[in-house]
Design goal:
Number of helices: 11
Largest sheet: 5 strands, antiparallel
Distance between the termini: 26 Å
Structural class: alpha+beta
Helix content: 40-55%
Number of strands: 10
Order of helices and strands: HEEEEEEEEEHEHHHHHHHHH
Strand order of the largest sheet: 1-3-8-5-6
Radius of gyration: 21 Å
């Protein structure tokens, strides 16, 4: 779907709008992407995303737009009027740190509540995401506080970080969309079952991996330290964080390596050491397995976002 087609569809679905001279709704589509790839018929894809700052009065109402919308509030506050699962237009506050998932096919209205409302908005296709959308809305809460769920924040930031329209990067973005919506659903599903209390040793291990990923870790040593069988350790960690301990640790290391590749001139061998992988060849193999490209190719081909 091209930029022109999506922007045209958006404006054709507007019911009403009120904006100031500082911001125009057409600004949403500055980062719209061309959608000419075959995978778009089967995989989810991003239509556009934009970080904006709006001032009161600001509002718009739309319906029947064939897209999903994710809104993350950075500062200020907005209010969402949205048709819930019972067909009632209810009001929801979008305060700092909240993220809302909106089915734009339903009637919805966004209103600036404070003098300034700063948020990032991302429109994505409904392709292959219907299952997650229905599950999330069926569980009754489509608004998340990202300061409570670091994995959701990481998945959200990764979507916004990939900002290129080559076929390879578009497929990578599709993968991150699936991961993001999976995280959204898992959080609500675990909350619904009442089992969201994470055992202290699992939470501690997760914190260590996230903040001290460069240290060497052994599953046997961790099991001994926590006094838990290593197979149980793997099973319980995956229950709450989707990955086994080593898988999650490698995921964090590769994400940090990607940041270093784009933000520094460090050599590949040095980056490998910095993120805690002593064998450079193993680091390169692992990086390619997770991203589809070598570290050097990633550095050369990935655009840096200011």
């Amino acid at each position: 779907m091209s930029q022109k087609l999506f922007s045209t569809e958006f404006f054709s679905c507007l019911i009403s709008s009120e904006t100031s001279n500082r911001f125009s709704l057409s600004d949403y589509f500055e980062n719209a992407y061309s959608r000419e790839y075959d995978f778009c018929s089967t995989l989810p894809y991003e239509l556009c995303h934009k970080s904006v700052s709006v001032t009161s009065p600001f509002s718009y109402e739309a319906a029947n737009l064939n897209a999903l919308c994710v809104i993350h509030t950075a500062n200020g506050a907005g209010r969402l009027f949205y048709e819930n699962e019972y067909g009632i237009n209810a009001g929801y506050d979008l305060t700092k740190g909240t993220l809302a998932v909106i089915d734009c096919r339903k009637n919805h209205k966004l209103v600036c509540q404070h003098n300034i409302w700063e948020y990032t908005i991302c429109f994505v296709s409904t392709t292959s995401l219907e299952y997650y959308l229905q599950k999330i809305h069926h569980l009754g809460n489509f608004i998340y506080r990202l300061d409570k769920y670091s994995d959701i924040l990481t998945a959200w930031e990764q979507i916004l970080r990939i900002n290129s329209d080559t076929e390879l990067h578009s497929i990578m973005r599709s993968r991150e969309l699936v991961n993001f919506f999976t995280q959204l659903y898992l959080v609500r599903a675990v909350e619904q079952t009442g089992s969201y209390h994470i055992p202290s040793y699992i939470a501690d291990m997760h914190h260590r991996f996230t903040t001290a990923y460069q240290h060497p870790y052994s599953l046997d040593e961790l099991a001994t330290e926590y006094g838990v069988n290593k197979f149980r350790l793997c099973r319980e960690f995956a229950k709450y964080y989707e990955y086994t301990p080593i898988q999650y640790l490698n995921k964090i290391r590769i994400e940090k390596a990607k940041e270093l590749l784009l933000s520094t001139d460090e050599k590949i061998v040095d980056i490998s050491q910095i993120v805690g992988i002593e064998n450079t060849n193993h680091f390169i193999r692992l990086f390619k397995e997770k991203t589809g490209v070598t570290p050097l190719t990633y550095r050369r081909e990935t655009p840096v976002i200011d």
